[in-house]
Specification:
single chain; alpha/beta
Length: about 525
Amino acid sequence: MSDKNEIVLVLDFGGQYNQLIARRVRECSVYCEVHPGTMDIAKIKAMAPKGIILTGGPQSVYGDGAMLCSPELMNLGIPVLGICYGSQLMAHVLGGEVKPAPKSEYGRTNVHIDEPSSKLFHDVNSDTICWMSHTDYISKLPQGFIKTASSADCPNAAMEDESRNLYAVQFHPEVMHTEEGRKMLQAFVYDVCGCSGDWKMDSFVEKTVRSLRTKIGHGKALCALSGGVDSSVAAVLMSKAIGRQLTCVFVDHGLLRKNEGDEVAAVFGPDGPYDVNFVRIDARERFLKKLEGVTDPEQKRKIIGGEFIHVFEDAAKKIGHVDYLVQGTIYPDVIESGLGNSAKIKSHHNVGGLPDHVDFKEIVEPLRMLFKDEVRSVGRELGIPGYLVDRQPFPGPGLGIRIIGDVTEEKVRIVQEADAIYREEVEKAGAQKDLGQYFAALTNMRSVGVMGDGRTYDYAIVLRAVKTSDFMTAESAQLPWDVLQTVTSRIVNEVKGVNRVLYDCTGKPPATIEFE
């Protein structure tokens, strides 16, 4: 894919916003990939990127075990932008000095642009709000650099050596709190790197369909269809490429939302709009038995991911001579499951949750390098109806990671019923329009309550609703109080086993959107 598109590399040094940087670059119609900060120089040269961005990170560049890069990276003739830790890294390896800051900065900060003629800041206001998050600072610039921006507590908030196309900012232009961050990143990829912006979803569909036809040839493929956005788009993309050589297998693992199995069958089954081979497998008992007594979320994901593969292997044997397994893996799945020395946020069931041995010739993941909104764009390009393309994301492990603690048939029933009530009332009130995701989860907490004249000792349901444009950062949504009251009243009165309803006000970070 990237060999025919201009590419900007994001080299990751453990920053929490590594995905977000790449996403922002792609919003500029420039293809971007995230790789470990330790990536070999020879591999970087082979990829011939138009630019390189160094991410933030949790370490101090002068500390023991700090992730560093070779000074050679700065001398490849490729433009480099260092962000936060990346800016300090640039200063450190090129002979500048980085020290503990006399005063740390965290949050929204006014930054003054000292060099408005800078290519990075030429379209930015002289005073602009940026997001800072650092305890170290650049105390001395490397030779050849000039200061281009400053704040009250950070004299070198940005620096550059234009002659070598080296730029650095102490703040985070990728987060939405940096009001003119998009302008800065756009200036870097276009004015500094000279990109033309050739990353378009229509060309992605055309290239991918052609590539899939070549890869699969006359072979057969099995698509792991969950009915969610990602697997649905993958299924239609594969169908466009290889037609009836594809069989979509929908595994009902018993951890779906209420009535969701029937809804998936209505879309992809024989009466649906797509001419695909469709197989529905009832594996509810099989999955629940495997999950019996398991409380650790990582173990749940691995069990669910592994069992999915085994069910698909069994299905492939019945179909006969299936070489390829198709999954709706997307780029955040890959990155969050662990990238180089970055922290593993969680193992996605279709990435880190895969067993060591898979009984297929190859796993095909046509959406592996796309972010969620790009997947939706592909879906629209393929003509998939809006109600499918724009539906809310649902995790592959399903309600297994919306049930804290062990998973039982009774707990699944509770969260299914509560979630259905919540979704119904939110949609009835028209409150879903600005929400990126909303759902009910089951805590592992039981508390005393009073219903009628009797004492209860039942579970607490937690409701979550977030606003997000990219699913990499999110803020808790402020739902109307009367809606929450109605939902609460219905859940405690209609769902047996629940006597308390809570609302999650936590953003991402520090939380994730899902619970486990």
